[in-house]
Structure formats: structure tokens, C-alpha cells
Amino acid sequence: MSAQGATGGADPDQAPKSRLFYGWYIVATVFVIQTVSCGLIFYNLSIVLKAFVAENGFSVSAVSAATSSFFLAGGVFGLGVGWAMDRYDPRIIMTFGAFCSAIALASAGHVTELWQLYAFYILFGMGNAAVAVIPGTTIVARWFNRERSRAIAYASTGLSLGGIVFTPISVTLIQNIGLGQAAYWLALMLVVGTVPILWLFLKPDPASMGLAPDGDAPTFGEDGRIKAPDGVDFADAIRSRFFILFTSAYVFSMMAQVGCLAHQFRLVSTRTGDDHTAALAVSVMAAASIAGRLVGGSVLSRVSSKRYLQAVFILQAVSFVAFAYAEGTTALLIVSVMFGATVGNLQMMQPLMMAEAFGLKAYARILSLAQMITTCANAAGPALIGVLYERSGGYHVAYLCIAVASVIGIVSLTASGPVRALIDKPQN
User: Which of 35, 259, 332 is nearest to 163 (CA)?
Assistant: First the structure.
């Protein structure tokens, strides 16, 4: 379809320049979807963990191990999501993810057997992969080039805002009416808060509206179609030094981060004896995550992405050491702020730097493979902390161990070489 046909007869070159580029509506749409989906899926992991232990009679280590299947399932299924993003309407994929997660969430109160616990987390993880980060980030990246870091930063704040908005709601509902009844309401919120906006506002890419990234005039090929985005082939990208070592850095750093996220609520609750303080700590962490992303989106225009990420990795390692020793409410809230700043930036920087390194030609497949590897490794985080907690009688040793994992991530990132080494290589 020509640009003229796609825009109802209007020539994009002649469109008023003052009109807001539709890409920013895409950013707002992804922001809302990630607020709801991540708030009710990802940030509910630690809350559901505690509820499964308290109400359903599972041990901490059993639920921690089962939580790992959430990340394994999400990683493996995410690879299929990346493949599907290049072939099908992303709205169909994301709708499937929303309903998949909602069905899992609604069943939480009925989980009484170990196999049911694993089935819950597997279905929950599959849904999360299809509705949250991979599709949302891929779509935003397609709509922007020069403004990509700022657009992804704004859109991804929804990942953290979800923790602020939905953590207290989830805790209050579970405390007042129990996990079984609360789960139905949380599942309904998930579907209502994502599916309608998907179909009202989301567009797969600028070409579907006769536009080009950043609102620039589109470039047409010899066939009259808008040219496809440039970039590195999938096979070349995944064999590169940067992909291998950058992904390795995320394996260790995100394993540590995810482990902390899964146990943060219980850690604070255990040390303070108050679930509401624990919920506040999660909300404070999420607020710091938002601030971290917004700061990052601004700073990245003046600082190289690799230098910035190295600083974030160091801050994460320091926050884990602090968590190991923090006891009082004030100390735990301060450390939650430190940790939150790293959460926001680590989750934002992986898709952003993948686009910087390899372009958009095979972006969805490259990102989904990197996240599959990372996510499968992440599965060890909650289980590792759970085992170390029970064997050592507390969280002290566990958090020192994940601090070491973060340091390994720093070393791997430093050794990865220039970010744009492959995409800037002269083509024969």
C-alpha cells in the first residue's frame, strides 16, 4: 500500500509539522500496557510467593524454585514471540499474552499441589513474555531512531509505575479477601487494562500509517513501498563478540536482580514484621526505578550507553551488599531506592543497546534470543536466594552471593568491546 493510500489521501511530506508525531501516542500506549501488565504480573511475583507460603502451605524453597519456571517459560516462549513479531500483528500476540496471564492469575487460589504450582508459573511466564517487554520495546524501537533512547525510557517507566500502583492494591486485596478471591479481581484488571487500549491505539510500525521513524519523510524503494529498516543480519549479530559478552553480563546481573525482586517483599516483611512496610518498600523501589529511567533517558544524550550501564551495574552490586546488612525500616527503604534506580535502568538498557548495536533489521529476533538466554538464567535467581535463605537461616549470605554475580556482570560488560563495532563495520 502506498503512503498516500495509508493516510487517506494525505501526503505525509505535506503534513503540518506542528502535528504531534503518532509515535508518541505509541509510547503512551505501551506505557499504559506495561504499567498494567508488569504491575499485575512481574511485581506480583514476590507478593504471590508470600501468599502461596502463608495460605497454600508451600515452603519458601518450593515456591522459589517454582518461580524459576516463570522465567524459564518466559524466556523460551519469548523466542517465539520475537519470531512472531516479524510476521503477525503484534496486537494479536499481546492479546494472547494478556489472556494467558489472566487465566493463570485467576487460578492462584486453587493451587494446592506442587505440579499445579509449576503449571501456574509456566502459564504466567508465557503470558508475560507475550504482553510486556519484548513486543512493547520492539514496537517503540520501530517508531524512533534519533529519539529512541528517550522514547524507550518514557515507555518503559510503565514497568516501574505498575509496581507503585498495583503492589498496594494486590496486598490489600489478598489481606482482606484472601488470595483465591483477590486473584479473580486482579485477573480482570489485567485484561481490562490492556486489551482495549491495544486495539484502539497500537500500530505495528510507522510504515503501516505511511510514516517514517521520528516523523521524518518516508523513503521509498523501487517497488513503491516504504523501505524496510536497516541493520545487521540475525546470524551475524548473534556470533559477534558484543552480543555474546553483553548477553553474558545480563545473565549474571539480571539473575541477581530478579532474585532480589522475587524476595524483596518477604525480606522487608521478615525484618520489620509488617507487610505494609514491605509493600511500601516495593513501591519506593518502583518509584526510584521510574526516576532512574527518566534520568537515564536524559543522560544518555551526553554519556555513552556503555559507560552509563557500567555505573548502573556498580550501583546494583553496592545495593545488594547494603541489603545484606540493612535491618531497620529507614535503612531498608533507602536501600530499596538504590536498588530501584538500577532496576529501571537495567531493564531499559538491554533493548536500547541491542538496537544501537545491531539496528532494526532483525531486532525482534535478536532481542528475544538475548532475553531468552537472560531470562532462563534469571530463573536461578529466586531459587538460589531461597535455598541460601533456608540453609543459612537468613538473607545475609544470599545477598552477598548475588552481589558477587553483579560484579561478574560488570567484568563481562567491560570486555564486550565497542557497542557499534558490527553495525559500523564497512560493508563489502
Answer: 35
